[in-house]
Write a structure and sequence with these properties.
It contains 16 helices and 14 strands. It is an alpha/beta fold. It folds into two domains: about 200 residues, Rossmann fold; about 190 residues, 3-Layer(aba) Sandwich (Rossmann fold), CATH 3.40.50.2000. The chain has an eight-stranded mixed β-sheet with strand order 3-4-2-1-5-6-7-8, with helices on both faces. A six-stranded parallel β-sheet has the order 11-10-9-12-13-14, sandwiched between helices. Helix 1 packs across helix 16. The longest helix is centred in the N-terminal third of the chain and has 22 residues. It starts with 5 loop residues before the first strand and ends with a helix. About 45% of the residues are buried.
Length: about 400
């Protein structure tokens, strides 16, 4: 059987370290190794073959800065990607449209279908509902034309892949439920093997926190995440010299967080830049407890994919987010962490204090976390699910 050509469209790809770039790189290279012809349309200047994957750079800069600049560059990429897809896509191809930039699928679905290709939406976040959740219901009226266009794109596609049951339910209200699948984002492939103890010890020493119980938030400091509860807990614990907090990463709320820490004079909180993929396993494991957060208003629109990396690192999870939902259910079922309601900094402080004093309990939670990763969040499992979906869609191409 001849496998159809796959065309993925996303603003970022290798060598970018953005989350969707890493995910797409992992998936594309694995599918190529299995014999699928894989093409990528992404931003950048230099096209060519890399690890068996043909990369088509759309010519726009993939490093937006200010909000206005970001909007302009997003629009430039959509236009360039549309031109690339019009030239590249053909009958029997499978086009996988991601969600960077937002509403990419709404712009490109009709082009792919007109070329005789089949379309899958790989939905990392749900726009424009995220904008409405940020700015209020009034914006829903202004964004209705885009939501309607997005809905048509979902409805006419051959599949929609989401990250969680809650996201699938949201998409399933506006697209055929039978076409909606769930494939959680996996931990980066560099986390398949646990970090070595000596490397972990060296990292902690380099941080100057070798003798501390380190509570870390590692990843995007984005608008959908909840940080007030963490800051309040850190303030409660500011005189506990055995406990230190780390924010490792960057994002839209970095300056806001740094200003809040400075204004509260929280000497127990430090900021570090994002780490490379090569150092990710040891950086995650160098913390004693990992934080995952989600503002409840976004619970059905995104899924904090950093959870997979935290579990792979074998560290217990403190989730600050909605107590109802699949993350809480996972932590409870797998016995690898706890959930704290946003705003309940008293409970967060109490749990941190208990875990800091009980090293054997932390160790067992970490072992359970690694087992949960092996069960639910490996790259191998995700690729198998993708292959199943691609074969199903390929069968519709031939029908």
């Amino acid at each position: 059987m001849t496998l159809p050509r796959l065309i993925f469209v996303n603003r970022v790809y290798w060598p970018s370290t953005a989350a969707t770039a890493q995910l797409l790189t992992d998936l594309a290279e694995n599918l190529s190794a299995r014999g699928w012809p894989v093409h990528i349309i992404c931003a950048g200047k230099e096209s060519g073959l890399h690890q068996g994957v043909m990369i088509h750079r759309a010519g726009s800069d993939d490093q937006p800065s200010s909000l206005l600049s970001r909007a302009r560059r997003y629009d430039a990429f959509r236009c360039c990607a549309k031109q690339q897809l019009t030239t590249l896509a053909g009958p029997d191809d499978i086009v996988v449209l991601m969600t960077d930039p937002p509403l990419l699928g709404a712009h490109l679905t009709d082009i792919a279908l007109s070329r005789g290709a089949r379309v899958i939406h790989w939905i990392q976040d749900i726009y424009p509902e995220i904008v409405t959740a940020h700015l209020g219901r009034l914006t829903a009226l202004l964004l209705w034309p885009w939501r309607s266009r997005r809905d048509v794109a979902w409805q006419t596609a051959h599949g929609c892949v989401t990250l969680s049951a809650s996201m699938a339910a949201t998409v399933g209200c506006r697209a055929p439920a039978s076409a909606v699948a769930i494939i959680p984002n996996w931990a980066p492939r560099e986390l398949q093997l646990p970090a070595l103890p000596e490397a972990i010890a060296a990292y902690r020493e380099n941080w100057g926190l070798a003798d501390k119980c380190i509570i870390a938030y590692s990843g995007n400091l984005g608008r959908v995440h909840e940080f007030k509860t963490i800051l309040a807990a850190a303030e409660r614990l500011k005189n506990q010299r055995a406990i230190a907090f780390l924010f490792i990463g960057a994002g839209a709320r970095f300056d806001e967080l740094r200003s809040a820490v400075a204004s509260r004079q929280l000497q127990n909180i430090n900021f570090l830049p994002p780490v490379s993929r090569e150092n990710l396993a040891v950086a995650l494991a160098a913390a004693d407890i990992q934080l995952v957060t989600l503002n409840p208003v976004f619970a059905n629109l995104v899924y904090p994919s950093k959870l997979a990396g935290t579990l792979a690192a074998g560290r217990p999870v403190l989730f600050v987010g909605p107590p109802q939902g699949e993350i809480t259910q996972l932590l409870t079922t797998e016995e690898c962490g706890r959930t704290v309601q946003p705003g309940d900094d008293e409970s967060l402080t109490e749990i941190i204090t208990q875990w800091q004093l009980d090293r054997p309990h932390r160790h067992q939670l970490g072992l359970n976390a690694r087992a949960a990763y092996t069960k639910h969040f490996t790259l191998t499992h995700a690729v198998e699910r993708w292959v199943d979906i691609l074969h199903r869609v390929a069968a519709t191409v031939k029908s």
